[in-house]
Amino acid sequence: MVKIAIYCFSEESISEIKHICRDFKHFECYSIYFKDPYYQVYVASIKEKKVGFIVLSRHSYNLYGDFLWVDEDYRNGKVGTELLQLAIEKGKKEGYRSFIGDTLSTNKKAQKLYERIGATKFGEFINFYGEGKEKLYQYRIIIEENLNKNMK
């Protein structure tokens, strides 16, 4: 069973997340944002082992999944799906008009994950963080019931 909880970051917790994210070479540039209260981080665990997380932030009326990561040993399971569903439910409850996430054009598994939860690709950009060989795809789920509501 996957458990997901909000994570309040401290120096120790950043080290802990860095440890579970051992296969992500750009983690250092993201760790700066984890210290910012503007971002919310949700961590997924299975049997007390932290196996993935999603970083969420608000931009205007949209909820962004700024970063989604799942341990290689737990991919193709339910962890990524549950983290994304948590984000969409949060978006519904808090009045966001859409949930937006992105992934690299070379990451076919993540693209399929977004499509499996009902997201559609709506943007394609040059990946400024890579070596220029890949693009960044943006995926979105419109939260219909919130389109005409004002934010709280």
From TrEMBL:
Protein name listed in UniProt: N-acetyltransferase domain-containing protein
Taxonomic lineage from the root: Archaea, Promethearchaeati, Promethearchaeota, Promethearchaeia, Promethearchaeales
InterPro entries: Acyl_CoA_acyltransferase (IPR016181), GNAT_dom (IPR000182)
SUPFAM superfamilies recorded: Acyl-CoA N-acyltransferases (Nat)
Boundaries of every N-acetyltransferase domain copy: 4-142
Short name of one Pfam family: Acetyltransf_1
